[in-house]
Amino acid sequence: MDKLVIEGGVKLKGEVTISGAKNAVLPILAATLLTDDACIIKGVPDLRDTNTMIRILRSLGKSADLEKGIVSISTLKKTGYVADYKLVSTMRASFCVLGPLLGKLKKAKVSLPGGCVIGVRPVDLHLKGIKALGADINIESGYVIAKAQELKGNHIYLGGVYGSSVLATDNVMMAAVLANGKTVIESAACEPEVVDLAEFLVKMGAKIKGQGTPIIEIEGVKRLHGATHTIIPDRIEAGTMILAALITRGDILIKNVSYKHLGALIDRLEEAGAGLVKTDNSMHVRYKNELKAINVTTLPYPGFPTDMQAQMMSLMSVTPGISVITEKIYPDRFMHVAELNRMGAHIQREGPHAIVEGIKELSGAPVMASDLRASACLALAGLAAKGKTSISRIYHLERGYENIEEKLEKLGAKVWREKE
Ligand code: UD1
Question: Is 378 found in the same domain as 280?
């Protein structure tokens, strides 16, 4: 296993280009199972998770290859209906092959996704939605087995205890596009990645309205055809780069960013006093003056994304004053608190809140990445800290940030990889 070593204290400067969105590309690749025709997906980030989804598609009978940001998919043999434990357990998003397999084949056997360090992540909403379309569901030996004579459109309320669910909305939408009649998903997730998936499905011939709002309406069609689609920019990578500029007191031009997807983050940063200049599809972030502490609460989109919570905590840990960070999506997503405190931060966790007392400077330390966004948080902390930080289990970072070392190096960061 590799660890990432960062010699902190360099002000990042220069230009960086954001890759395609991980959370959009994974369900969109799964959606290609809905047709036997060829599909071309562009702007695909070369990530560990993307490659896992490509392996799943291959295991189900597709030919799929990622080359220079483009995945070309075609059908090699009759689509299989069993998504194997080994592949599904490594990545929760692989569970979103359930909807398209059921939609296309009227049967699917998909391993339940494994546990996750950011807290309990149930699939009850996925199953509720699929059942409402008329599928019988059984759980056997760790697999969900779903079968239906036919899928029938229905009115489905998909809100859960923590609000809407991104992948449950994706799964139900992908099953419903080939169902008979009309489906209405109420309390649907409004995330831009759900909209991107809906737009791909529409290009394939699906009839979908209301994507991006809490009510999505789907009129089932008989068959879908192949399509070509370009993935939206990754708003979480863009947000992480904005914070990298601010935490290192640097000056970065961020290209291929959709700032309309970053409303909640921009609002919080403007409140903190950050100078952000937006142009068409780029953003200039220049540290001008000391920021002030702000409170942040994560919520479903368009609220502040839980996937930016850990990185925001790094910034607040070196911003004078007290900030309260409240996690309303995954109340246990605070593994990074102890690691930031190892670097000298003053953070106290109280249930779903973290109380952050900003200090002048973090000091480099050996720390451990527990999940994807926690590793990004530690990388930001390491970039700002005095001295050397080594982050072990860096493979988490590779799940979601394409060429992150090269990108940071180009901005002047002193960063390298070492064997553990
Ligand atoms: C997606 C994102 C992930 C992000 C999360 C929340 C992908 C590949 N991943 O994950 O990066 O952190 O959205 O924005 O897009 N829940 C239930 N029952 C369910 C499903 C979810 O109670 O059946 C709960 C979850 O435990 C959580 C909340 O709903 O508290 C939101 O989770 P959800 O939106 O489903 O997350 P994912 O789609 O898995």
Answer: yes
